[in-house]
C-alpha cells in the first residue's frame, strides 16, 4: 500500500515538474511565441481574405468571360473557341488572364479537345496534360483524349497505356468499357492479341450491360484465334 502511494506521489511530482518546465519555457520565450502566433494568424487571415476578396470575384469573372468560348465549342467553331472572335475571349485567353481559377483549369481541357479535333496533336497533349482533373468527372475523358492524340501520332503503345489509365480512373459502366475497348483495339493493332483478349474479357465480365459488351464475343473469339 505504501509502495502504491509512493508511486502515485512520484507521478504527481513528475507532472508538476513538467508543468513547471512548460511554464518557464513559455515565460522565457513569450516574445518569440507571440510573434509566431501573430504570424500564423496573419497568414490565415490573408489566405481567407485572398480567397474571398480576390479569387472568388476573379472566378466569377472568368466564368462569365468563358461563356462565349463554350458556346463556340458546342457549335464546333473551334478556332473561335480557342482564340476568341476579336470581341469575346477564347480558351487560351482565359488560361492567360485567369490562370489561378477553376475556369482556367477547365479551359485547358477545352483547349486540348479543340486542338485534338483540329489535328494539332502535340498541342492537344500539352493542354490536356496541364488539365488538373483530380476529382473531376472529365478526368477519364481527358486521359482518353491524350490516348487518341498519341494514336494519331502513331505511338500505339502510349495510346494503349492512356486508354487503360482512362478506364481505371473513374470506374463506371460508361467510360470504363469505352476506353477498355479502345485499348483492346490498339493492342490488336500492335499485334498483342493476348492483352487484347484480356481486355475484351474484362469488358464481358465486368461491364456486361455496357454498349461495348453487346458484340464483345466476336472480338474475344478473334483475339483467341490470333493469340494462338
Could you list some keywords that capture this structure?
mainly alpha, Serine Threonine Protein Phosphatase 5, Tetratricopeptide repeat, 0% strand, 228 residues
**CATH superfamily placement of the domain at 133-228:** Tetratricopeptide repeat domain
CATH second-level architecture of the domain at 133-228: Alpha Horseshoe
Number of helices in the DSSP assignment: 11
| Strand/helix succession | HHHHHHHHHHH
**What radius of gyration results from the CA coordinates?**
29 Å
Extract low-pLDDT stretches: 44-51
CATH hierarchy class name of the domain at 133-228: Mainly Alpha
Main β sheet profile: none
Proportion of residues in extended strands: under 5%
CATH-derived topology of the domain at 133-228: Serine Threonine Protein Phosphatase 5, Tetratricopeptide repeat
Total number of strands: 0
Concise summary:
By secondary structure, the chain is an all-alpha fold. The chain contains 11 helices and no strands.
Question: Topology of this structure?
Answer:
Elements: H1 2-28, H2 30-74, H3 78-83, H4 91-97, H5 102-117, H6 121-130, H7 139-152, H8 156-169, H9 175-189, H10 193-206, H11 216-227
Helix pairs in contact: 2-5, 4-5, 5-6, 5-7, 6-7, 7-8, 7-9, 8-9, 9-10, 10-11
Amino acid at each position: 500500500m505504501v509502495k502504491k502511494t509512493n508511486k502515485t506521489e512520484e507521478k504527481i511530482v513528475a507532472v508538476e515538474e513538467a508543468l513547471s518546465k512548460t511554464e518557464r519555457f513559455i515565460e522565457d520565450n513569450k516574445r518569440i511565441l507571440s510573434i509566431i502566433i501573430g504570424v500564423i494568424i496573419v497568414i490565415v487571415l490573408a489566405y481567407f481574405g485572398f480567397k474571398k476578396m480576390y479569387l472568388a470575384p476573379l472566378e466569377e469573372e472568368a466564368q462569365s468571360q468563358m461563356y462565349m468560348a463554350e458556346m463556340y465549342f458546342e457549335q464546333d467553331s473551334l478556332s473561335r473557341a480557342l482564340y476568341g472572335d476579336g470581341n469575346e475571349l477564347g480558351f487560351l485567353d482565359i488560361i492567360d488572364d485567369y490562370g489561378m481559377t477553376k475556369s482556367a483549369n477547365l479551359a485547358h481541357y477545352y483547349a486540348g479537345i479543340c486542338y485534338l479535333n483540329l489535328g494539332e496533336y502535340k498541342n492537344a497533349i500539352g493542354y490536356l496534360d496541364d488539365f488538373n482533373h483530380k476529382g473531376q468527372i472529365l478526368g477519364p475523358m481527358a486521359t482518353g483524349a491524350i490516348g487518341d492524340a498519341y494514336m494519331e501520332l502513331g505511338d500505339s503503345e502510349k495510346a494503349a497505356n492512356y486508354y487503360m489509365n482512362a478506364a481505371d480512373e473513374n470506374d463506371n459502366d460508361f467510360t470504363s468499357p469505352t476506353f477498355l475497348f479502345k485499348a483492346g483495339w490498339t493492342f490488336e493493332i500492335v499485334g498483342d492479341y493476348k492483352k487484347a483478349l484480356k481486355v475484351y474479357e474484362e469488358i464481358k465480365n465486368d461491364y456486361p450491360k455496357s454498349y461495348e459488351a453487346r458484340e464483345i464475343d466476336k472480338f474475344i473469339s478473334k483475339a483467341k484465334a490470333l493469340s494462338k
